[in-house]
Design goal:
By secondary structure, the chain is an alpha/beta fold. The protein has two domains: about 5-125 and about 385-390, Enolase-like, domain 1; about 130-380, TIM Barrel (Alpha-Beta Barrel). The chain has 14 helices and 14 strands. Strands 4, 5, 6, 7, 8, 9, 10, 11 and 13 form a nine-stranded mixed sheet that branches. Strand 4 (about 140-150), helix 6 (about 155-165) and strand 5 (about 170-175) form a beta-alpha-beta unit. The longest helix is centred in the N-terminal third of the chain and has 22 residues, at about 105-125. It binds magnesium ion (MG). Magnesium ion binds next to loops. Magnesium ion binds near residues 243 and 244.
Length: about 400
């Protein structure tokens, strides 16, 4: 089997990212989204979604690349390759893009490509993806509703109640106005906790550049003392974890704060490649590692991260706030882990991110998502929708 086409598909939507005031739902990236379609000579097709600057990513995949090694377009490097040879391909793409890549947008593109290749492998084997990743160890996972902070306590109460009504037993609020005013932050978290009751899980994602993030002149990451102070007061509201709230290059600050924090630290969505995860986990930065399959380097890297997490005795909960493709790949991966306490479920999908792929995801009476047990990931790209929104 050989790869015959690599198509970066740039999609345009009509909504913009917004953290709402009241109970109404927040909106994720509703204006642009890139997906990649990989086609083989056998007719099998793999899809991946990419959380990145979509317009630039389309060029990194679709080219034109340059003749010198390190400056290649990813698509050119894939044509003619055997799609099942995922590790070899990962290394080829890394070297081929090394001069402009190694992190950021190039790795994000490589992640989507890697996930799409794993999908093709699963289809070729006629099995659910989990079977190729080590075999499933569970049929369902507890899902948490993942959304943005509302700007008022009343909005937080309405939103929290809405997720409970939908059957969620765990909710994460992130970003929005959080970090602008500590008094209001406390009111928002208190409103969420009060509504959710003492036993449902509440997670907080304060953002890592949030100190008045609407005012660029005040953008600055938290100091170690500010981060610890935040953990201490979040503990008063029985917050299950605090997420991604320290400058992503400051591994040492994570490790120092974790030593004293009464709340679990979760992070890793900014981390990419096995080398970086080794350093991040190795220095004791977090209690919960959160690789994002569309950013970390894809499933090939995530499999290594799972081994590291198990060895370090920490939890792994993938970051997955994008289309159902990412949720589908994440569910298959999480189903194979020894321990998988939660899966992140994006309740804030825009018309664009929500329309790209269809999936049978439904919460059961206990707030768990069933893991599809069909060939590949059990998610279908809506090609009509994709054609209607394509701009490149
Ligand atoms: Mg986050």
């Amino acid at each position: 089997m050989k790869i015959v086409a690599v198509d970066p598909i740039l999609l345009r939507g009509e909504q913009t990212y917004v953290a709402t005031q009241g109970g109404e739902e927040a909106v994720d990236n509703g204006d642009w989204q890139l997906i990649v379609k990989i086609t083989t000579d056998s007719g099998l097709v793999g899809w991946g979604d990419i959380e990145t600057l979509a317009s630039a990513a389309a060029a990194i995949i679709g080219g034109p690349g340059m003749s010198i090694l390190g400056f290649k377009a990813l698509g050119d490097l894939l044509i003619g390759e055997d799609p099942t040879d995922t590790t070899r391909i990962w290394n080829k793409l890394y070297i081929g893009s090394a001069y402009y890549g190694r992190r950021g947008i190039a790795i994000q593109c490589m992640s989507a490509i890697d996930n799409a290749l794993w999908s093709i492998k699963a289809q070729a084997a006629g099995k659910p993806l989990a079977a190729l990743l080590g075999g499933r160890k569970r049929d369902r996972i507890r899902a948490y509703a993942s959304t943005l902070f509302r700007a008022t306590p009343a909005g937080m109460r309405d939103a929290a109640k809405g997720y409970m009504d939908k059957g969620f037993t765990a909710v994460k609020f992130g970003w929005g106005v959080f970090g602008e005013d500590e008094g209001r932050d406390r009111e928002l978290v208190a409103a969420a906790r009060e509504t959710l009751g003492p036993d449902r899980l509440l997670m907080v994602d304060p953002g890592w550049y949030p100190v008045g993030w609407a005012k660029p002149e005040r953008w600055s990451p938290r100091t170690r003392d500010q981060a610890l102070r935040l953990c201490n007061w979040l503990a008063e509201y029985k917050v299950y974890w605090v997420e991604d709230f320290i400058h992503p290059e400051h591994f040492d600050v994570y490790a120092a704060v974790r030593k004293e924090s009464p709340v679990k630290l979760a992070a890793g969505e900014q981390v990419a490649t096995t080398w970086e995860f080794e350093r991040f986990i190795g220095c004791g930065a977090v209690d919960v590692i959160q690789p994002d399959l569309t950013r970390c380097g894809g499933l090939t890297v995530a499999l290594e991260v799972a081994r590291m997490a198990e060895k370090a005795g920490i939890q792994l909960v993938t970051h997955s706030w994008l289309t159902h493709l990412l949720t589908g790949h994440s569910l298959q991966f999480l189903s194979t882990l020894k321990e998988a306490p939660l899966v992140e479920f994006n309740v804030s999908q825009s018309a664009l991110t929500g329309g790209i792929a269809k999936a049978p995801f439904k919460l059961d009476a206990e707030g768990f998502l069933a893991i599809p047990d069909t060939v590949d990931i059990g998610v279908t790209v809506d090609e009509k929708f994709v054609q209607a929104h394509r701009v490149n």
